[in-house]
Design brief:
single chain; alpha/beta; 9-stranded mixed β-sheet; two-stranded antiparallel sheet; 9 helices; 11 strands; about 35% helix; about 20% strand; disordered N terminus
């Protein structure tokens, strides 16, 4: 039933988006945050919170090709990783990213950021980018997704994904809760059950800013991003959000059969906040490996020594290894 409903939603959204895309093809604007990139907004039908907007970000290869990478960000995030997009186009792949509804460029005044009750709500946001890529002549697509985006993308690919999607790259996907066994097995299911009936109960998160500080150039990192779009401390979520994540993880744990090739990448170690620059300070890498290897029959696993939670934001020599693994895998499966 979970995927029947998701498939029906997706079919309707694709029909709507095809009409919208054809009528709004010229509505691209220069992205003031990323030189050489452009974006456009996609208006979706209203939902339980009101107006819904997603955003497609575009950067095309100089060499005309019919293939592209679609990037999906994680929780408390948006697309700002220009080095990633530039690397993709330098390897002769067109690049798209999507800022999901209520995230980043898609966040509007009055919206409750990041709220969701079912991860299939994000499928139309992905569909809109796929439709747009099709109109641009891109018929070979690999999804690249990080953290919660990796969970969403895995769920999307485990249903009835568009034929154009030929591969999936997962950067530290959120496939299980990084909590002790009692919390994962007892408390989370209880909160999830409550969230299915009362989705708006706020759930506070850890107030530790160590991971953000390990990224920002103004602290201990080398990156510049808008801290109004990617907050220093993860905000409270809701019981409905817990329910949405838990149900998606359960579905993938018990009924996963993603047929396209998968590249699964994660750090070599999980670390506490104080060691955020030495490993994954957000998720349990053993969980990523355990569940990631079960997503489908063709999974290539890459362990990145001392990689950060977002591997492509690691130190230069570490992310160079990440890019090498990623583009070698792409070359192997799709040619140069």
């Amino acid at each position: 039933m979970y995927f029947v409903i998701g498939y029906m939603k997706r079919t309707l959204s694709v029909i709507i988006l095809c009409v919208y895309t054809l009528s709004c093809a010229a509505q691209w604007h220069p992205d003031s945050m990323l030189t050489g990139y452009s974006f456009r907004s996609v208006i979706h039908p209203d939902d339980y919170q009101g107006p819904v907007v997603s955003t497609i970000i575009r950067h095309d290869s100089v060499v005309p090709r019919n293939r592209g990478i679609l990037y999906i960000h994680g929780f408390n995030d948006y697309f700002f990783q220009k080095e990633l997009g530039d690397s993709v186009t330098a390897h002769d792949w067109n690049f798209r990213a999507v800022d999901l509804r209520r995230y980043g460029r898609s966040l509007r005044t009055g919206m409750k950021r990041y709220q969701t009750r079912d991860l299939t709500e994000y499928f139309p946001d992905i569909d809109s980018a796929i439709v747009d890529m099709g109109h641009a002549g891109i018929d070979t697509i690999v999804i690249l997704a990080h953290s919660t985006g990796g969970l969403i993308a895995s769920l999307y690919m485990n249903g009835s994904p568009p034929d154009q999607i030929d591969g999936l790259i997962l950067n530290s996907p959120f496939l299980d809760w990084n909590m002790n066994g009692f919390t994962r097995r007892i408390l989370i299911p209880i909160v999830s059950c409550i969230g299915s009936h009362f989705p708006d109960i706020p759930i506070r998160q850890d107030s530790d800013s160590s991971y953000s500080e390990s990224l920002l150039a103004s602290h201990n990192g080398e990156w510049h991003f808008d801290t109004d779009k990617k907050l220093m401390v993860s905000p409270s979520v809701t019981s409905g959000w817990i329910h949405a994540i838990n149900e998606a993880q359960k579905e993938l744990h018990h009924h996963s059969d993603i047929t396209v090739p998968i590249l699964l990448m994660h750090s070599s170690q999980s670390v506490g906040g104080a060691q955020a620059s030495q490993g994954d300070a957000v998720l349990n890498v053993r969980h990523i490996s355990k569940w990631g290897r079960r997503l489908g029959p063709d999974v290539t696993e890459v362990t990145v020594r001392n990689g950060l939670h977002d591997l492509i934001l690691s130190k230069p020599e570490i992310r160079a290894a990440v890019y090498s693994s990623m583009f070698s895998w792409l070359d192997l499966h799709y040619g140069r």
